[in-house]
Design a protein that fits this description.
five-stranded mixed β-sheet; binds nicotinamide-adenine-dinucleotide; Rossmann fold; alpha/beta
Length: 347
């Protein structure tokens, strides 16, 4: 497996591999950039097809965290970890204990929190081995699951997007297609519903869709049709790659914006969305609410006023992305990358 010539290698400052046969732990921890502070980003626990897929994920996700943290103007660098989910039976506590030891060995260059497949309970286990952990339920500055704050930031950003694209104030009366009703997707759907939006939803988990149908009066569609709905907004809140060569031509929405990291399968998809007159809210700008909350916890004195101020800052940054994109005729993802690299002082 090549690292330095890997297409997603971006002069990452560090890439760590850890394995512990006793617990079944196999993980990568990637530190992309620490110019703004210690690298922080969630840990993903996922069944990868192979190690190469996991490596690609950690390289891409950690870089996106540098960009996200820079765009959110928080004093953290970018990093990410992925744990390869063992096949068959395993002892979850032993595995996350071993992972906590791995985080400790990175010596504070990387501070972890939750990502897909990892809960606050897992965070508690990791915390038994290391202090370089946030997103905890209890403790001095504990701030809990960051997902509701991620949903809050996305909601605020979507308000900016609908004003910019559709000239309306708020999401009332709009139709939003939500792909994935997990920690963030469901919280976002609740906020949208409360603000008068109509929901179309899909998830591979039928319990989640049933709950959304009952509680939020959402229309449920299949996972292979959610992107193609006649909606004002398509909100990808599952895994990455929702916008790809197979889905792009079917997207009917005026706006794409949601929680998932790496929504564009390739950067060219940003241009393709623009060519179709669809406004894309760059994922790492829109979904920074959770890491903003984590940054408040990492500071040692959690202050919601600071969090709220940074969430409001997301509106300003997103508006700047949209304005620059419009005046320069360049895709929003391209503009966001440029702004992030400026803020990171990278060439
Ligand atoms: P989650 O695991 O709680 O939810 C993901 C949901 O997507 C699950 O309900 C799952 O069943 C569903 N899903 C999986 N494949 C699907 C498919 N093909 N079609 C429809 N639904 C599918 O994860 P989460 O914490 O809600 O995060 C969602 C996304 O947002 C991830 O990409 C994550 O990296 C990103 N994100 C999360 C946070 C956070 O604070 N949790 C912050 C930033 C970004």
């Amino acid at each position: 497996m090549s690292i330095f010539s890997h297409p997603d290698f971006d002069n990452h400052e560090g890439l760590y591999t850890f394995s512990e046969p006793e617990s079944g732990l196999k993980c990568f921890i990637a530190v992309h950039n620490t110019n703004r502070g210690p690298a922080s980003g969630g840990t993903r626990f996922w069944s990868y097809a192979d190690d190469t897929a996991a490596l690609t994920d950690v390289l891409r996700l950690s870089k996106a965290m540098s960009y996200k943290n820079a765009m959110a103007e928080i004093p953290l660098g970018g990093g990410k970890a992925v744990i390869l989910k063992p096949e068959g039976e395993f002892d979850r506590e032993a595995l996350f204990t071993a992972y906590g030891r791995a985080v400790e060995k990175v010596g504070g260059q990387y501070i972890t929190a939750e990502d897909v497949g990892v809960s606050t309970d897992d965070m508690r286990v990791i915390k038994t081995q290391t202090d370089y952990v946030a997103g905890l339920d209890d403790g001095e500055a504990a701030s809990g699951d960051p997902s509701p704050h991620t949903a809050d930031g996305i909601f605020r950003g979507l308000e900016v997007a609908v004003k910019h694209k559709l000239g309306v104030d708020g999401v009332g009366g709009l139709i939003v297609a939500v792909q994935g009703l997990g920690h963030v997707g469901y919280a976002l759907a609740q906020k949208l519903k409360t603000s008068g939006a109509q929901l179309i939803v899909a998830d591979i988990n039928q319990e989640a869709t049933q709950r959304a149908a009952e509680e939020l009066k959402a229309t449920v569609v299949t996972v292979d049709q959610i992107h193609a709905q006649e909606a004002d907004i398509f909100a990808p809140c599952a895994l990455g790659g929702a916008i790809n060569a197979d889905t792009i031509d079917d997207i009917q929405a005026y706006i794409v914006g949601g929680a998932a990291n790496n929504q564009l399968k390739t950067a060219e998809m940003g241009r393709a969305l623009m060519d179709r007159d669809i406004l894309y809210c760059p994922d790492y700008v829109l979904n920074a609410g959770g890491i903003i909350n984590v940054a408040a916890e990492v500071s040692g004195t959690y202050d919601y006023k600071w969090v709220d101020g940074k969430l409001e800052g997301l509106r300003v940054t997103l508006q700047e992305v949209f304005d620059r994109s419009k005046s320069l005729g360049r895709p929003t993802n391209d503009i966001a990358d440029e702004m992030a690299r400026e803020r990171l002082k990278l060439s």
